[in-house]
Amino acid sequence: MPLERVNIVWFRNGLRLHDSGPLHKASEEQEVKVLPIFIFDGETPYTKNGGYNKIEFMLECLHDLNDQLTAVDARLYCIPGNSTEVFRQLSKKFKIEKICFDQDPEPFWLERDNSVKNFCATHMIEVEETIGATLWDPLEIIEANGGTPPLTYTHFCHVTSAVGEPARPFDDLDLARINFIDLDEDIMRELKFYPSVPTPEILGFERKGEKKVYKGGETKALKFFTQRIQFEKEAFMDGSFLPNRRDPDILKPPKSLSPDLKFGCISVKMFYWAIMDAFQQVHEGNPAPSYAIVSQLIWREFFYAMSTNNPFYGEIERNPICINVPWYEDQKRLDTFLAGQTGFPFIDAGIRQIKLEGWAHHVVRNALSMFLTRGDLWLSWTHGLAFFLTNLIDADWAVCAGNWMWVSSSAFEKALNCSFSLDPRRYGRRIDPNGVYIKKYVPELKNIPTEYIYSPWEASKDVQEKAGCIIGRDYPEPMVDHDTVVRTNKEMMESLQVDIMTKLRHVPLHIKPSDSEEIKNFFRLDLKDKEGN
After folding, report:
1. pLDDT per residue over 444-493, tens digit each?
2. Tell me, what DSSP letter sits at residue 524?
C-alpha cells in the first residue's frame, strides 16, 4: 500500500499563519496533505538557554497557532527530538514531498539546516526555504556588497537600495481550503509526539516568581499591530514619524512589537509595507524619501547581515569585528550587578524588572549596558548579552549582541570612543523625574523623598530613618564611585585606542556609526543630555 503524500510546514521562528511562505509552498498541491509541525530539539536558544518568561511566551505563540488551526479541524503537531531524526521517522510513515520552512539567518542554525537539507537530498524530498524572518536575504546583501557585510548603517542603506525594495508579504490563505492531515493516534504515540502543546514545566522550566507583561501569539500581536500602524499614521498626519521613540514612558505597558517580531508572530515585511503605505496615503501618493520612517526595522536588518556569516558574533576573541578590550574579571562585581544590588536605584530597578517581567524599555537597557561595561564596572559585554538572551523575551541574538558591542565600544563605535558616559544618578530623571519606576521595582526605596530617589545615599540619616531605609543596611551603598571609575575607564579606553592605532596604523575594521546623529538616536538622547566625561 503506497504511503500517504504529505508536505510539511516546519514552524521555527515564524510562528504565524499570515505572510507564511512555508504554508503557501506546502499548500500549492491540493491533493497533497499538509502537516504543520514544531520540533523541540533542545538546542534552540530559547529552549536551551532561555528563562521561564521567554519559553512561556513561545509556548503561548504555539497555543495560538494551534487554536487557529483547530478552528478549521486541523492542529499543530509538537514533537521532541533531533530535527533530522524526526523527519527520518516521519518518512517511514509518509511519502514526504516537501519540507517547507523560513530561513533562519543566524549562523548557529546552519548545522541543523544543512543536516535536514542533506537528508532531503538523499531521500528525494524537495526543500522550500523562504525569506520570512527578515526583509531581505542577508546573504544577498553580503553578495551585493562584494562578499562582506556593510560596516556602517549608511553603507547598508546604500546596498539595500541597490538590491531593491523588500518583497511584499504573501496574500492571506483561506485555512479552511487547505488539505491538512489528521495524524493517527497510534502514529503519534509511536513517534512520541506531545499530545498537545507542552507546558514550560514539561520542558524542564520552573517558575521562580517571574510574571511577564507580554502575552504571546499571532492573534494578540495582530491587534497590537493594527493599533501601532494607526499610531504611526497619526504621526505622519502631524508631520512627524517614529512616534514610539518620542517621550519614552518606562512605566506604561510596552507598545513595542519586538517580541512579536522576534518570534515571527508579526511579519516584518507586513510591518515595513504597512508603515510605507500609510506614509504614502497621508502624503497623497508620494512615497517615503528614505528609510527614516522605518529605521528601527532597517537597524534590525543591518545586524542580521553583520552576523549571518559570523558564528563568533556573540564572542570577543574569535569575533573579527569586535575589539578585544581587556575587561576586568570580577565575579563579585558581576554577581552584584545581576542581583540588582548595585546601590544605583535606576540600574537595580532595570535588572529586577527584566528578571521579573522579561522586559524593560530600551532606555533602561542602554543604561544597564553602559553601566556594566565601559561606564562603571568595566566588565565584559558578553555577560550582559547572556543575561539579556536568557531573560528578555524579545532578545534577538543578532540585534542584542550588536547593541552590546556598540554600547561597550567594542564595535560599532568610533575606535574605542569613550567621550561620554551615562550617569546612573541622572539618566533616569529625564523620563521619570519622580522616581516612580524605581519605587515600583526597588520597593526598599518607596518612602525615600523624590530628591534623593536616584542617589539615596545622599539623604541624611534622619531622612533615611524616617523613610524606613538605611543605606548600607536596607539597601546597599553604591558599589563604585561613579565619578572616579568613569575617569579611570576613560583613561584606559584612550590608552587602548592609542596602543591599537600605533600597532595597526589605521582604524581597525569593525562596525561603527556613520555619524554623531546615529549615536544620539541610538541612546535616544539629546546631545545636551550626554555627560561629557
Report:
1. 999 999 999 999 999 999 999 999 999 999 999 999 999 999 999 999 98
2. T
Residues forming a β-bridge with 98: 7, 126
Helix, strand or coil, per DSSP, at residue 531 = strand
Conformation bin of residue 469: beta by default, left when phi > 0, alpha when psi is -120 to 50: beta
Whole-angstrom Cα distance, residue 329 to residue 340?
19
Cell representation of residue 513: 556609526
Rounded Cα distance between 459 and 192, Å, is 62
pLDDT at 117 over 80: yes
Question: How far is it, in rounded angstroms, from Cα 171 to Cα 36?
Answer: 19
CA Rg, the chain, in Å? 25
Fold match, 1-132 / 331-529: no
Tell me the fold of 1-132. Answer: Rossmann fold (3.40.50)
User: CA–CA separation, 486 vs 466, rounded Å?
Assistant: 33
Q: What mean pLDDT is reported for the chain? A: 90
Q: C-alpha cell of 407? A: 554600547
* Per-residue confidence (pLDDT) for residue 497, from 0 to 100: 79
Tell me the helices (H) and strands (E) count for the chain, helix number first. 21, 5
d(CA 325, CA 413): 13
* Banded pLDDT at 522 (limits 50, 70, 90): low
pTM of the model: 0.92
pLDDT above 70: residue 510 = no
Confidence label for 46 from pLDDT (cuts 50, 70 and 90): low
The matching CATH number, chosen from 1.10.10.400, 1.10.579.10, 1.10.10.350, 3.10.450.50, for 331-529 is 1.10.579.10
Question: Would you tell me how many other CB atoms lie within 10 Å of the CB of residue 109?
Answer: 17
CB 322 within 8 A of CB 405: yes
Distance between CA atoms of residues 167 and 272, nearest Å: 10
